[in-house]
Amino acid sequence: MKLKLNLEDKNLKLQRWIEKIKENREVFIIIVMVILLCFIVCLSEVLYTSHFLIGTSPTSFNWRKALFLIIPLIFFGILAIAIILRFVRERKKAKEVLQKSQQEFVSLFNSSPEALVYLDEKGNIININPRFTELFGYNINEAKGRNLDNGMIHPPEKMEEGKWITEKALEDKFYYETIRKKKDGTLFSVSISGSRVMLDGNLRGTIWMYRDITGRKQDEQLHQVLYNISKAANSPISLNQLYKTIHQELGNIIDTTNLYIALVDEKEDKIFFPYNIDNTKPIHLPRTINHNSLIAQVIKTGKSIFVNREMIKGKKFTMEFRKWFGTLRKVWLGVPLKVEDRVIGAIVVQSYTNPELYSEKDIRLLEFVSSQVATALERKRTEERIRYLSFHDALTGLYNRAYFEEELGRYNSPRHYPLSVIMIDVNGLKGINDTFGHHEGDKLLQHLAFLLNSISRKGDVVARLGGDEFAILLPSTTSEQANKFCKRIKKICGEDKIKPAYLRPSIALGHATQKGEYQNTEVLLKEADKRMYQDKNKSTCLRANTHRQR
Q1: Residue 445 to residues 240, 333, 432, 506, 532: CA-CA distances in angstroms?
Q2: Collapsing DSSP states into helix, strand and coil, what is residue 56?
Q3: DSSP for 251-304?
Q4: pTM reported for the whole predicted model
Q5: C-beta separation of 381 from 447 below 8 A
Q6: Phi and psi at residue 427, in whole multiples of 5°?
Q7: Which of 117, 144, 264, 272 is surrounded by the most beta carbons within 10 Å?
């Protein structure tokens, strides 16, 4: 047993010496050469080599002469050994540094959190790291040797772009953001960084770094959508135009093929649908807030509802919910529109074909943007309400005096001549207010406004000037036409069947027509007003005569 161990120990020592000789073979060669030269010198003196080679007379062995030859040989041998040892050490150190650098490079390459691919100067793949495999789906065996620009990770429309990027990276460092393709065909946003690999001043290839920036791009797009909605809300566009803008912008982050917006009319306690794009159900009728429907449930509870065909079969949803969901829909997602915790409506997206079109993340996404949408809608509704009130009479809904006078000035030009104006005064309004109360007098004014609107043309301007005075502006209307219109108004009021009878309007009318003879609109109004009072006095006289006859 001891003998076997000794033999193994000797073998190990022998192997170590052999490895040392291999590592320092130059040194051992010099040592062997010096020993060999010294041996030759000594041998030549002993064997009288010069006598046999050139015919000199044999002499006795001269140790001094031999030492004189051996010492320089040993000196220069030692010097050569020192130089070679230094060279060997430096080379060994450089080799170790290179190996360590390569190991570090490989380690960093493989452990990088970003997807890396190493290409040769022709664009062929030399190596990829695990993150590249994770990101694109290709392993090293599938990728190695393939040309990166042959469509492996490029959508068809990005092939030329890929070649252009490769050329740019060969010139200098490069950064670019674009779309790339995974092995399964999925497209996603990436940032690409490229740099050259140089060795001894020569190009040895390029290293590309790919980073998935889908999340960042989605965030950027989301913030852009919110900005565009806010910008639209602060622009002079109408509320109807704002609905379209919201629809268009939301289409950038979620499928909005079928979308509608529901708002709450707090006075009427109803839900109405000012905007509806639905391929299957193009009309949504107004309904009460307590209506049995998904949209009413969202508005009542102030909570989002997400349900698809598979979910509705589960125990989570009651039979009532299943009935509301119906049989046509495949998926429905509704979120409330809130302004300072007050629900003003809801926004809904749905599909009649794909039950997997929306997911839980779409709830969070739509809830996130719903706040901005609600604020934008409320702002625009308030603007339109203020604009409406600035030009309309709050009681009757007709245009007010300010708007009437503005339009009268605008129409007072030869292009709109003949321009007719009708002045109207309500008879007996004070008596109705005193007898039945102002609320009944208000009903009379509202009813008259309804009658005037019902018989007016599209381009006419019907206004309440204040109190019991009304006026109608008739562009491109002759005096004869205006007179016929006045008779028609009186006839409709006289034949009105409203109950109680005191709400049937009794009115006096006067009209005037501008053909260019009046200096200004003030004179035109005075003329119409004068004729209205003439009609009022005439009506008063008729009523007085009728009373005396009775």
Answers
A1: 30, 45, 11, 11, 18
A2: coil
A3: TTTS--SSEEEEEEETTTTEEEEEEEE-SS------EETT-SSHHHHHHHHT--
A4: 0.67
A5: no
A6: -85, 140
A7: 117
